[in-house]
Design brief:
199 residues; 5-stranded antiparallel β-sheet; 7 helices; ABM domain-containing protein
Length: 199
């Protein structure tokens, strides 16, 4: 399975004023050896820009990081505001492309609470994914999740939705909300919705 780099940052003033200044960076990344796909977009809930980069292997991205002029060579720096770029590499349990191709992609960043285990989390996420996927339509597409390479206590889940508002309606259904309550007892999490575009 490919490794997905999830990168995010607060936009610079220049980026907020002119979204096109990121295009040279996206073109560069797309042409980098081992980069299979580039998706970018803004979170609906806050001023945060996200990149999902699909790498053939983790080593391909590490080769880019080892470049003597990294990170300037990526051409992303003019778009980056206060706080710099943050990133994780995620090994999703199945193809995440249907989720990221939806009009609104749920990104759920999770950290295990003390005393909780990966197995407990995966049981809950599996139940959520099963409930979502059994009625897989253009309104909601493929729940997929996985651990980060960098930290065994951190995980990501992505689900594609027709809108963030529709997502809010679906999770109120009793059989799904019961699993959400279990999730809240198991992890601390941050939920965002991103409108991604492929480059």
């Amino acid at each position: 399975m490919p490794v997905v780099e999830i990168a995010w940052w607060s936009p610079s003033e220049a980026f907020e004023a002119d979204k096109s200044i990121i295009i040279p960076a996206l073109d560069f990344l797309k042409s980098t050896d081992g980069c299979n796909a580039v998706y970018s977009g803004f979170a609906e809930e806050e001023k945060t820009h996200f990149l999902f980069l699909v790498w053939e292997t983790l080593e391909h991205h590490q080769n880019l990081i080892a470049h003597p002029e990294y990170p300037q060579v990526t051409r992303l720096l003019p778009t980056v505001g206060e706080g710099g770029i943050k990133l994780y590499h995620v090994e999703f349990n199945k193809d995440f492309l249907p989720a990221i191709s939806a009009p609104s992609t749920e990104i759920l960043a999770m950290t295990l609470k003390e005393g909780k285990t990966k197995d407990e989390l995966y049981t809950i996420l599996g139940a959520i994914a099963s409930n979502i996927d059994k009625d897989n339509t253009p309104e909601h597409r493929h729940a997929t999740f996985g651990p980060t390479v960098e930290d065994p206590t951190k995980f990501y889940l992505s689900i594609g939705w027709k809108s963030a508002a529709f997502h809010g309606e679906i999770v109120q259904q009793p059989h799904i909300f019961a699993e959400i309550l279990k999730l809240r007892e198991t992890v601390d999490y941050k939920l965002l919705h991103v409108n991604f575009a492929k480059h």
